[in-house]
């Protein structure tokens, strides 16, 4: 018997981007044709979904002496179109924790709002700020529960009573901690710069210069990375965004 849209009233659709297919999973349909425990899987060839706004992106993070430095470019793309030249890719979550984003802008903004709310609620309930590792674990749980439905990766950096810390979380919730990390389409280039020049216990000024150099190199070689550079520092004094004039002076020296 052919099942039509009229016959299937309770349908859950999960879009699978691979090969432009949509898998339709039928739960209990309000029709006489389906029993309570029957599930019908159907695959329909459809047109590719419309492009979503993505950050394209190169973001990096590195641990320096008594601080963490986060940096990113500002280009957002929709396929081959540059959708925005001033995209925000570094976000302040608490006074001492920040994140960078790489992937779907909508997904990233939604999760950033959720992290900010949960961190504030934690602080109100416990009368102390959430630690960097705890917020990263919260992020991991959010991503893991979504099972890849959020198309975005994060770099989490911050400073607490355990000192400067840096983590990377991918779109399914994996957590990796390192002295320096990179995400996004231009990350292979940026990581090459960091791998060559990074040293333990770098002074804050040197770490900022290296972060700018890494992003600038990615801008030169990755089409989805470009326009301008953002840098933020997190230390015992809190979250500090580096002004654009300082960044441009460093960039011009490259």
Structure overview:
This protein is 30% helix and 33% strand. The protein is α+β, with helices and mostly antiparallel strands and 254 residues long. It folds into 2 domains: 35 residues, no CATH class; 195 residues, Glutamine Phosphoribosylpyrophosphate, subunit 1, domain 1. It has a 5-stranded antiparallel sheet, covered by helices on one side. Strands 8-9-10-11-12 form a 5-stranded antiparallel sheet, covered by helices on one side. A hairpin with a 4-residue loop joins strand 1 and strand 2. The N terminus is likely disordered.
Structural features:
globular; 2 domains; alpha+beta; 254 residues; Glutamine Phosphoribosylpyrophosphate, subunit 1, domain 1; 5 helices; five-stranded antiparallel β-sheet
Query: Any idea what the CATH superfamily of the largest domain is called?
Result: Aminohydrolase, N-terminal nucleophile (Ntn) domain
The CATH architecture designation of the largest domain is 4-Layer Sandwich
Number of DSSP strand runs: 15
- CATH class call of the largest domain: Alpha Beta
**Helix-strand category:** alpha+beta
Q: Count of helices?
A: 5
Query: Which whole number gives the mean pLDDT?
Result: 82
CATH topology of the largest domain: Glutamine Phosphoribosylpyrophosphate, subunit 1, domain 1
Reading the helices and strands in chain order gives EEEEEEEEEHHEEEEHHEEH
Give unreliable regions as ranges: 3-51
User: Number of folding domains?
Assistant: 2
């Amino acid at each position: 018997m052919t099942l039509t849209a009229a016959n299937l009233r309770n349908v859950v659709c999960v879009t699978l981007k691979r090969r432009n297919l949509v898998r339709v999973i039928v739960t209990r349909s309000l029709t006489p044709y389906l029993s309570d425990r029957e599930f019908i899987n159907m695959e329909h060839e459809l047109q590719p979904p419309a492009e979503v706004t993505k950050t394209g992106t190169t973001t990096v993070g590195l641990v320096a002496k008594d601080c963490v430095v986060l940096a990113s470019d500002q280009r957002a793309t929709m396929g081959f179109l540059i959708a925005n030249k001033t995209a925000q890719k570094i976000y302040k979550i608490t006074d001492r924790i920040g994140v960078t984003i790489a992937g779907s802008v909508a997904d990233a903004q939604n999760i950033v709002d959720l992290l900010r709310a949960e961190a504030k609620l934690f602080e109100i309930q416990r009368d102390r700020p959430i630690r960097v590792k705890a917020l990263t674990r919260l992020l991991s749980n959010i991503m893991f529960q979504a099972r890849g439905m959020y198309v975005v990766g994060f770099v989490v950096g911050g400073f607490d009573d355990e000192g400067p810390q840096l983590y990377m979380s991918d779109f399914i919730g994996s957590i990796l901690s390192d002295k320096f990390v990179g995400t996004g389409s231009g990350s292979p280039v940026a990581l090459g710069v960091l791998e060559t020049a990074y040293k333990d216990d770098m002074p804050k000024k040197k770490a900022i210069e290296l972060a700018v150099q890494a992003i600038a190199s990615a801008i030169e070689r990755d089409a989805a990375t470009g326009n301008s550079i953002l840098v933020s520092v997190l230390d015992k004094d809190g979250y500090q965004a580096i002004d654009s004039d300082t960044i441009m002076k460093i960039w011009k020296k490259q």
